[in-house]
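Q: My labmate handed me this sequence with no annotations at all. I'd like to see what the chain might look like in three dimensions before we decide whether it's worth expressing. Could you predict it?
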Amino acid sequence: MKILCVSDQIDPLVYSNSVRERFSDVEMVFCAGDLPMEYIDFIVSSLNLPTFFVFGNHNLNEFHLFHKALGESSSDSKDLLGLKSVSGGATYAGFKSLRIKTSVPKKPLLIVGASGSIRYNNGQAQYTDSGMKLRLLKLLPQLIFNKLRYGRYLDVFLAHSPPRHLQDREDPCHRGFTCFRWFLKKFQPKYMVHGHIHLYDLQEPRITQYHQTEIINVFSHYILDIPWSNT
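A: Here is what I predict for the chain of 231 residues:
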């Protein structure tokens, strides 16, 4: 299963008239934040594939539409229907556990999303480490259900920020979340997809192994190829 992952900048290889031909073997799209909604809309309309996104710490014009006061995400069905139109048909994955239908019967792709960055100037979509951990803990009942029903908690953790000391930086804005290290160690997703850290040298390594998880910086664009079968 090939997944197109994008984050942090508009990539001319994606924002192109030939995007459908270039990514003809892709089955879904993950957007890891700091992207204008118009870009996500372009991807959805061009590829016509299931698309899932989280917010970063920039390009937040629509953030308030997807979150009620103090960052609580909307769960009202009418609200969600309206938000689909705002996002061009993409599904918001921030602070949610989603089960995505795949080509393999009775084997959905299990993802958890987390928007935002560490708090550095009290802006929107910025969280303390304890605040982020609390939001992840609220997903615990759904993760336990996944483990009981499918034998695993999740497959992919889709976030904007990286874990602390794993592909992050030391300036206040680009420090990762320590609680992400706890989350990965506890729930053991196969993959973590994130952005936030710009790779100006595209030869710079993108992948770090942490316990059972392959952490991937998908800055600009990256093709995640997941082996997917009944076994």
